[in-house]
Design a protein that fits this description.
The protein has helices spanning about 5-20, 25-30, 65-75, 90-100, 110-120, 160-165; strands at about 55, 60, 80-85, 100-105, 130, 145-150, 165-175, 180-190, 195-200. It has about 210 residues and is an alpha/beta fold. The protein has a domain at about 65-200: Rossmann fold (3-Layer(aba) Sandwich), CATH 3.40.50.150. The longest helix is centred in the N-terminal third of the chain and has 13 residues, at about 5-20. The termini are far apart. Bound molecules: S-adenosyl-L-homocysteine. S-adenosyl-L-homocysteine binds near residues 59 and 152.
């Protein structure tokens, strides 16, 4: 699918593997989605470096290895109904769509939601919808979800999102203050409550309430 050569993709895969992304399905999805189409044109030449990059609305496209590790930690299969909070460029969204049954994504910046929708359509991904809205409230009409991925940091896991997770479901999210290092957390909903596991240190933009 990607317009770049196999050498670029092999180097991309090596970079991802060095940071611990070793799930073949995740690596294949990341090779399939053309990241150069999700960055601003002036950064297209750097799209396969392991870097977060600026996107519109003063936001960032996440670092590829972090996208890979978050996707891997979700343990997706093709039966999963997934909620994504903070679609941004839509790059992570496209990878989720390749690996799941259905993806519902929310983005608080209307311009980003529109741009992401067009990119996903261009790739022919029809099992995904990106809507302009406040993801900290989740998406009650489509809940409960098998998996939830949050791409913006909150001080604590939002209660609405915990409520909208299916029993046995998994949520991956960064937790911490904006200007401090944050922890990527894996939350699993069990019969008796929630199990929390810290994964890695990360740095994400803040999860903000309301939408623009
Ligand atoms: N994975 C995305 C990350 C984008 S940055 C990518 O790689 O492109 C995180 C995004 O979360 C930003 O676009 C920001 O606007 C969005 N965001 C922050 N708070 C939000 C909220 N409450 N609801 C929906 N989106 C939110």
């Amino acid at each position: 699918m990607s317009g770049v050569g196999v050498q670029t993709l092999d180097a991309y895969e090596d970079t991802l593997r060095r940071d611990g992304v070793d799930d073949r399905r995740v690596l294949d999805a990341m090779r399939w989605v053309p990241r150069e189409k999700f960055v601003e044109p002036q950064f297209a030449a750097r799209a396969y470096e392991n870097l977060p990059l600026p996107i519109a609305c003063a936001q960032t496209i996440s670092q590829p290895s972090v996208v890979g590790l978050m996707t891997q930690a979700l343990a997706l299969d093709t039966r999963c109904k997934v909620l994504e909070v903070g679609a941004g460029s839509g790059y992570q969204t496209a990878i989720l769509a390749r690996l799941s049954r259905r993806v519902y994504a929310l983005e608080r910046h209307e311009a980003l939601a529109g741009q992401a929708t067009r990119r996903l359509q261009d790739l022919g991904l029809s099992n995904v919808v990106v809507t302009h809205g406040d993801g900290s409230l989740g998406w009650p009409v489509h809940a409960p979800f098998d998996r939830i991925l949050v791409a913006a940091a909150a001080a604590d896991p939002p209660k609405a999102l915990l409520d909208q997770l299916k029993p046995g479901g998994i949520m991956i999210l960064p937790v911490g203050e904006h200007d401090e290092d944050q922890q990527l957390i894996r939350v699993e909903k069990t019969q008796s409550g929630y199990e929390y596991q810290e994964l890695i240190s990360v740095r994400f933009v803040p999860l903000l309430n309301g939408f623009l």
